[in-house]
Amino acid sequence: MTTKRIIPCLDVKDGRVVKGVSFVNLRDAGDPIELAALYDQQRADELVFLDISASHEGRKTMVEIVRRAAAELTIPFTVGGGISTVEDMLRILHAGADKVSLNTASLLNPELITAGAVRFGNQCIVVAIDAKYDEEREDWFVYTHGGRQRVEKTAVEWAKEAVHRGAGEILLTSMDQDGQKNGFDIRLNQQVTEAVSVPVIASGGAGDEQHFVDVFAQTSVSAALAASIFHYQEVSIASVKESLREKGFEMR
């Protein structure tokens, strides 16, 4: 059995961690370096930092946060948001990140995935997919620009293309479930994991320990990501891992 990973996510805006519901109504969740150090102590398997500040100033702030986080952390971490060139990737990796996450820029310019994979290796390139269900067409479609613009590609189509172009991992977020705390989107995660050969991180919907058990038991995802339940100490990483071990899952 593949070892499963539990990954807290830090959405960073103007130097602070924030969290919303279905990508809106953001509220403050703390200092990113303090939270990162806490999750390191609590034995998170990895961390994800997402810069949701769109401005150039936001990106400069994020590079400094990455540098400070790298000095504190003993676990791998991925950084995404506003990365649109190979030079942006280089800046983030040089600051200390282990992987970069590409979202909107990779949809606008898919060659960016290949360029990054060639320069830094597939293992450094994560493609983040924000997907929302269309009831009329009975499928999940991809959204860009922080969930604001729909692309006429399904989540499965784009995941397959991203992997073909060099993505070493997929970070799959259900926009419908994001912040709802009523469980991961099992069907979405099933379809994408069946379509690609690289690890998939499930994101969106975690509310308790059982939700992590469900997504690992019912899909082939390699990792599960959560934010608010960890930030506001509603659920601990230790309790999630213990629940999973009790069900027979091998944890890091």
From TrEMBL:
<comment type="pathway">
    <text>Amino-acid biosynthesis; L-histidine biosynthesis; L-histidine from 5-phospho-alpha-D-ribose 1-diphosphate: step 5/9.</text>
</comment>
<dbReference type="Pfam" id="PF00977">
    <property type="entry name" value="His_biosynth"/>
</dbReference>
<dbReference type="GO" id="GO:0005737">
    <property type="term" value="C:cytoplasm"/>
</dbReference>
<keyword id="KW-0456">Lyase</keyword>
<dbReference type="GO" id="GO:0000107">
    <property type="term" value="F:imidazoleglycerol-phosphate synthase activity"/>
</dbReference>
<dbReference type="InterPro" id="IPR006062">
    <property type="entry name" value="His_biosynth"/>
</dbReference>
<dbReference type="InterPro" id="IPR011060">
    <property type="entry name" value="RibuloseP-bd_barrel"/>
</dbReference>
<feature type="active site">
    <location>
        <position position="11"/>
    </location>
</feature>
<keyword id="KW-0368">Histidine biosynthesis</keyword>
<dbReference type="InterPro" id="IPR004651">
    <property type="entry name" value="HisF"/>
</dbReference>
<dbReference type="InterPro" id="IPR013785">
    <property type="entry name" value="Aldolase_TIM"/>
</dbReference>
<protein>
    <recommendedName>
        <fullName>Imidazole glycerol phosphate synthase subunit HisF</fullName>
        <ecNumber>4.3.2.10</ecNumber>
    </recommendedName>
</protein>
<dbReference type="GO" id="GO:0000105">
    <property type="term" value="P:L-histidine biosynthetic process"/>
</dbReference>
<comment type="similarity">
    <text>Belongs to the HisA/HisF family.</text>
</comment>
<keyword id="KW-0028">Amino-acid biosynthesis</keyword>
<comment type="subunit">
    <text>Heterodimer of HisH and HisF.</text>
</comment>
<dbReference type="GO" id="GO:0016829">
    <property type="term" value="F:lyase activity"/>
</dbReference>
<keyword id="KW-0963">Cytoplasm</keyword>
<feature type="active site">
    <location>
        <position position="130"/>
    </location>
</feature>
<dbReference type="InterPro" id="IPR050064">
    <property type="entry name" value="IGPS_HisA/HisF"/>
</dbReference>
<comment type="function">
    <text>IGPS catalyzes the conversion of PRFAR and glutamine to IGP, AICAR and glutamate. The HisF subunit catalyzes the cyclization activity that produces IGP and AICAR from PRFAR using the ammonia provided by the HisH subunit.</text>
</comment>
